Amino acid sequence: MAIDFFSDYRMTINGQLVGANEQIDVVNPATEEVIAAAPDASREQLEQAVAGAKAAFASWSQRPVSERQSLIASIGDAIEANAEEFMRLLTCEQGKARAGAEWEVGGAAIWCREIASQELVPHIEDQGDGRTVEVRRTPLGVVGGITPWNFPILLAVWKIAPALVAGNTMVLKPSPNTPLCTLKLGELINSIVPAGVLNIVSGGNELGAWITRHSDIRKISFTGSTATGRKIMESASGNLKRITLELGGNDPAIVLPDVDPQQVAQELFWAAFQNSAQFCVAAKRIYIHEDIYDEVAEALVTFAATIKVGDGSQQGTDLGPIQNRMQFEKLRDLLSESQKEGLKFLVGGDIPDGQGYFVPITIIDNPPEKSRVVTDEAFGPVLPLLKFTDIDDVIARANDTEYGLAASVWGKDVDKAQAIAKRIEAGTVWINEVHSFSPHIAFGGHKQSGIGIENALEGLSEYTNSQTIYTNSNAGAN
Q: What are the tens digits of pLDDT across the range 270-302?
């Protein structure tokens, strides 16, 4: 299907592409220019979307799973066929450079195809004497999805694909900062699945609150901040909605003394700064053994000097801007406070004047453990390096946070690294790599970093109920 990616942004409601009386301005974060207007859905339009999803559920949930799988795989094909347009639009509204856009759009196509290959097979137990027990998974109904602004296409697919494969219908709301790609994704999917199966509505915080409180929405799948996740959990309690919450993190990296500082520095850099560190699993605190601390710090600073920060649409740009002004101002405040504290900056620290929400790569030398730059999730390119000498001490420091999303351990002695990894309170711990994900590997957070799982059969099952059917075939035989 040929669609115009660069104009006419409309919502998908019960198979129809519709506008709204109110509009949201969408800003290019590299230029601060308004590039488009997106619909700001009314309460009535949300009701229409939910009603459409509810009506479509009856037939979609009864459709053979093989047919649902085929259609979801086709969404992956459609994303791939329109990859260039998606990447250009993604850079315009989100800011990320070409490599980041390729990673996200390519990943979204792969996720559709791979999730489409998954199936929750019933478990049947023969108890003898004509008695059987079947444990099967059944869809929930209408699912509400709310996605963030850092990976708007990929994280939408992380919700859409399993929800639809499992037999649910969906109403999905993108971030008001990055609605454009998601609206076009909805337009694309509208030509593949029946009317009402997927509805895309755009709007602000009020729309999100309406979705989380809606009595006909059986589940909320949300990716975003821990503070918002708590509010969603509270709203969902009103009618015992199922919830999956993928929330914030303050992810530690632990660098052991047996690594090669020059070799590990580049990997650590991207562990921390990929997507301009607007990444829930970015390494946000790097603990480096004192024996190699100076060498690793120097190598990081040297590598940082080779990275170009700028407009993601410009050739040669490695890292783009912060996506929105609110987050940009939070980072400005964090850097100002760090300067007032007298922290030592190895590189960066000063935000230049000019257009665009650009924050320079900033690396801070061994700040106090209780400084904001260590305890807060910066969600931007501000990285503290911290020294350690004792393994038990560094594990305690790494775990001293309300978050538990991800972590990494770096060392040549893999047995030692694994022993450390098993003591880290986080849902994912990488050893000698980072940011590896798979549609077939479970992902979720510990502590305040979330509830539930995304990806793998465990993630697929979160879009279902468990139903047990006991059958006695001999009933009434005597």
A: 999 999 999 999 999 999 999 999 999 999 999
Backbone angles phi and psi of 57, in degrees to 5: -60, -40
Nearest to 81 by CA among 239, 191, 163, 208: 191
Distance CA 149, CA 278 (A): 9
- Mean pLDDT of the 354-360 span: 96
Q: How far apart are CA 213 and CA 470, in angstroms?
A: 35
pLDDT at position 168 over 80? yes
What is the maximum span of the chain, computed from C-alpha positions, in angstroms?
Answer: 89
Positive or negative: CA dihedral 79, 83, 88, 92:
positive
Give the residue from 384, 380, 407 showing the smallest Cα distance to 281: 407
Which pLDDT value is given to residue 109? 98
Does 92 qualify as catalytic in the annotation?
Answer: no
Which of 440, 477, 475, 459 has the alpha carbon at shortest distance from 131? 475
Of 93, 187, 280, 377, which one is the catalytic site residue? 280
Catalytic-role residue among 246, 267, 454, 462: 246
- Amino acid residing at 461: S
- CA dihedral sign of residues 327, 329, 330, 335: positive
Q: What is the C-alpha separation between 376 and 398, in angstroms, rounded?
A: 13
Give the amino acid at 110.
I
Residue 364 has pLDDT above 70, yes or no: yes
Give the count of beta carbons closer than 10 Å to the beta carbon of residue 320: 28
Q: How far apart are CA 405 and CA 427, in angstroms?
A: 5
What pLDDT, on the 0 to 100 scale, is given for residue 477? Answer: 54
Chain length of the chain:
478
Confidence bin at 475 (pLDDT 50/70/90): confident
* Cβ contacts of 62-70, under 8 Å, gap ≥ 24: 62/167, 63/167, 65/119, 65/165, 65/167, 68/164, 68/165, 68/167, 69/116, 69/117, 69/119, 69/165, 70/116
Q: Quote the pLDDT of residue 2.
A: 77
Q: Which amino acid is at 324?
A: N
CA gap 40, 9 in Å, rounded: 11
202: its two tokens: 């755009």
- Closest-CA residue to 85 (of 105, 100, 103): 105
Share above pLDDT 90 across residues of the chain, in percent, rounded to a whole number = 97
In this predicted structure, the answer to whether residue 1 has a pLDDT above a threshold of 90 is no
Helix or strand (DSSP H, E) at 326: helix 325-340
| Closest alpha carbon to 171 in 207, 112, 206, 211 | 211
82's CB contacts (< 8 A; 6+ apart) are 3, 5, 188
- DSSP code string of 237-280: GGGT-EEEEE----EEEEE-TTS-HHHHHHHHHHHHHGGGG--T
